[in-house]
Amino acid sequence: MIKINSKAAQIINDLWEAVDAPAISNILKDQLNKYWPDAHLPVPEVRIASHTKLGHLAHMVASVSKDLANVHRGQTFFKYNIKYYMEVERAAMADEETLKRVLAHEMIHYFLYNQLTPEELYNWGTSQKSMSPTMKWQNGHGPDFQKEMQRINTIEGREYVTLKATGEFKLEGKEYFLLIQPLPRLNTMGWTWAVRPSEQQKMEIVKRIEKDQAKLFRSKDPKWLKGIQPKPWGGASYAKNIDAAQELKRIYNSEQEVQI
Ligand SMILES: [Zn+2]
């Protein structure tokens, strides 16, 4: 995905919390060393996103701005600034193998972006009719992309990287912890989730069980992965419609609780 900056877009980008995600950065570093050892590309920044719709699991974003550098003898010169970041949905972290495959796909985009000059990248971005993240642009998965894809699949195995949109990867069947708690002030139920809770998350889960009447379950339902993970003072995601609220209530009242 390419983003051409307007001022507003820049402000939104900056507001986006840059989360420290060392595990993902390490995967990206390994992939760069393994697939493109001679390219010497820096590891792109990682940003964790939690969108309500699971349209995609990760995006390589190239954010390009064009500024006037100077005017010399009637000629105008521009300065281009590119910022790359890998946007990863929290839900993608539910399964490491899926995560690595999705990241490898996005890193091909990153490698190919870096084959262009900043000016070419900017012009290519602005020439695209749609800036939507549907990944259907002509250049997006063209011959260059497929060449890199086949090269990686020679190393990792057939269909490790595919052309399909990353949103098509299914996370169904992966089990994780689901913590459900009543949210009396909102008069609804809230939840958080974790795959392999860190020590800090374990302490937070225990605290919520003791103080907030939270109950812990195991779930395979991918929809709760859209929510947030437990952290001190981090709150909980809450059911925004009656169906979700009722389902959380049903699980809370009837299913078997588990120990962490
Ligand atoms: Zn793609």
CATH superfamily of the largest domain: Metalloproteases ("zincins"), catalytic domain
Task: Flag low-confidence runs.
Answer: 4-20, 130-138
Structural class: alpha/beta
Helix share of residues?
25-40%
Distance between the termini: 39 Å
- CATH class categorisation of the largest domain: Alpha Beta
Ligands bound, unique:
zinc ion
Query: How many distinct helices?
Result: 7
Strand runs, count: 8
**Main beta sheet, described?**
4 strands, mixed
Q: Which term fits the overall shape?
A: elongated
Return the average pLDDT rounded to an integer: 80
- Written as H for each helix and E for each strand, in order along the chain, the element string is EHHEEEHHHEEHEEH
Examine the secondary-structure arrangement and name the CATH architecture of the largest domain: 2-Layer Sandwich
Oligomer: single chain
The percentage of residues in β strands lies in: 15-25%
The neighbouring-strand order within the major sheet is 1-3-4-2
- In total, the number of domains comes to 2
* CATH fold topology of the largest domain: Zincin-like
In brief, what are we looking at here?
By secondary structure, the chain is an alpha/beta fold.
